[in-house]
Amino acid sequence: MPLPERIQIKEVGPRDGLQNETEILSTEAKIEWINALSQTGLSYIEITSFVHPKWIPQLADALEVASAIRRKEGVTYAALVPNLKGLQRALQADVDEVAVFMSASEAHNKKNINKSIGDTYRVLNEVIEEAKEEQKSVRGYISTVFGCPYEGKVSVDDVLRICDRLFEMGIDECSLGDTIGVANPKQVQDVLTKLERYFPKHSLALHFHNTRGTALANVWAAMELGYERFDSALGGLGGCPYAKGASGNLATDDLLYMVQEMGYNTGIDELKLREAASLIQGHLNKELPSHQMSIVNRGGIQV
């Protein structure tokens, strides 16, 4: 199986990273960081979430942030949207892409969204229809694809059915999430080998967490099958709410190092990315857990 011709890195730190941080950043700090990310060469930045502030207080200023950032041509600015009310706020901010979300396991879906999978379909269908009417692209997130903190193993057939339903509703891309960081390379290839019989590879993205240190290995496993789209958070921001003390998302800077050393041109400026990482590290007043930032923090690389 040939490797992909290109790799696209989708930065989710301002949303998936910050929503798991105990430190609540100021609106100005978030805007400054997103503006810095826009100058790195990233083509996709998920900037915030329009989930009710009661559930994600870290992103309560979603409308203010999304409305005030300096947008750069060629960059897609996306936001997570749970329902029609959230969509109206996202449209008011004129985000480029709307992201909807649900889980592959019933127990996690009820815990995370407070709805059954069946009830969630109805809500998401309304969001997708209206977003499409407003000429917005739509991304679907499926959590717990590779394992659930409540149910354990998740059936690939369940993932397949949910993917199929979301694409029928009109999403443009589906991101497959390893929510608790339990995936291994063989499992990744087994799941993707089954899904690729039904969906084009370019319509699927992978969202790995590095809870057990396997995120980059899982990226390589997906690349070996020709997959090219990967979510990541700069510096490895975030965490897993179901695994106390676990590291967070796959780190954008670690992913960039790996694929650049393999000869891929992502269009991302490594120095500017490092500067953006140092910026958010300063705002959070803590060292970021990525390998690249560990080197920087030890003085091994001068920013």
TrEMBL record:
Limits of the Pyruvate carboxyltransferase domain: 7-274
PANTHER family for this protein: HYDROXYMETHYLGLUTARYL-COA LYASE
EC number assigned by the record: 4.1.3.4
Gene Ontology BP term (one): L-leucine catabolic process
UniProt cross-references to Pfam families, sorted A to Z: HMGL-like
Entry GO MF terms: hydroxymethylglutaryl-CoA lyase activity; metal ion binding
Organism of provenance: Pontibacillus halophilus JSM 076056 = DSM 19796
InterPro entries reported in the protein's UniProt record: Aldolase_TIM, HMGL, PYR_CT
Enzyme's top EC category: lyase
Family matches, as PROSITE patterns: PYR_CT
UniProt similarity note: Belongs to the HMG-CoA lyase family.
Keywords of the record: Lyase, Metal-binding
NCBIfam families with a match to the protein in the record: PRK05692.1
Protein name from the UniProt record: Hydroxymethylglutaryl-CoA lyase
